[in-house]
Amino acid sequence: MIYKFKNHIPVIHESSFVHPQAAVTGNVIIGKDCYIGPGAAIRGDWGEIILEDGVNVQENCTVHMFPGKSIVLKTGAHVGHGAIIHGANLGENCLIGMNSVIMDDAEIGDECIVGAMTFVKAETKIPRRSLVIGNPAKIIKEVSDEMIAWKTAGTRLYQQLPADCHDSLEAVEPLRERPEHRPEQEDFYKTLNEFKHGNE
């Protein structure tokens, strides 16, 4: 659902896909090839939210802020299932792990990886290429070229997903029995270990 709020109508590039069960409200600008999953809430009621090109905000994520703030999720930012971005800015090509919470005025640098269920306190500044985990968040090491290449490959799938959804997503009635010739699922992604060994 796309909602006008106090004369602000969301701006969403036609190449992006917002699931019908997501809610995008008010002063929100979504660039090219972005994916917004079902259950996601992007609330630009109290400030501007900008998603640059190629950002994905997955299922059941929340993007919001305190009144008077504006935030940017920069190009290629990847927000995993159930994460909360509250008044924080995300750098280019970063990954926010599932069920993480990034609090107000935090700054996540370019190409950072934030592990699942990490809590980043308000006003925390995370330098570029940091691997961050824990509650409260701690930097444990630098993100390697190999790790960021794997992350980038995963995000590329989400950047293709809007076009796939526009082409093939359809509300249907379920089948009641498994068909004899059920289509094979495409295998197009490598785990980090497979990625590492395939690039040695």
TrEMBL record:
One of its GO terms (molecular function) is transferase activity. CDD domains: LbH_paaY_like. Residues 176-200 are annotated as: Disordered. Keywords: Transferase. InterPro entries: Hexapep, Transf_Hexapept/Carb_Anhydrase, Trimer_LpxA-like_sf. It holds the Pfam family Hexapep. The keyword Transferase applies. The keyword Transferase applies. This is Transferase hexapeptide repeat family protein. It comes from Psychroflexus aurantiacus.
